[in-house]
Amino acid sequence: MKAVKDEFEADLAEAIPILKEALKALDTIKKPDLDAVKAMGKPPLGVQLAMKTVLIMLDLKPDKKNDPDTPGKKINDWWSPAVRLLNSGTLLTKLKE
């Protein structure tokens, strides 16, 4: 049991500074930054991927929309819920929880 505890404590000691740095990084994000992201009609792939990751971390689901290439088929739309989250004004608070 001591070996498991020691391994856990070592992992925790490594993770805590990373968490603190991530929280500090969130403090650098300002409202104009978020406004610029939500104003993107068709954001770059990296922005889409980052917002999709945030939605998954927060257990938020994509909208279903019609696939423009396959009539009758639905596809996941992650951008609409991302914009709703950005509009809510709670994104940074939720990420810090």
Question: What oligomerization state is this entry in?
Answer: single chain
Order of helices and strands: HHHEEHH
Strand content: 5-15%
Mean pLDDT score, rounded? 93
Biggest sheet character: 2 strands, antiparallel
Radius of gyration, CA atoms, in whole angstroms: 18 Å
Low-confidence stretches: none
Number of helices: 5
Protein structure class: mainly alpha
> End-to-end span in angstroms?
31 Å
Secondary structure: helix percent: 55-70%
Strand line-up of the largest beta sheet: 1-2
How many domains? Answer: 1
Shape annotation: extended
User: Could you tell me the number of beta strands?
Assistant: 2
Give descriptors for this structure:
97 residues, mainly alpha, two-stranded antiparallel ribbon, 2 strands, 5 helices, single chain
Question: Could you give the topology of this structure?
Answer:
Blueprint: H1 2-26, H2 31-38, H3 45-57, E1 63-66, E2 74-77, H4 79-88, H5 91-96
Antiparallel strand pairs: 1-2
Helix pairs in contact: 2-4
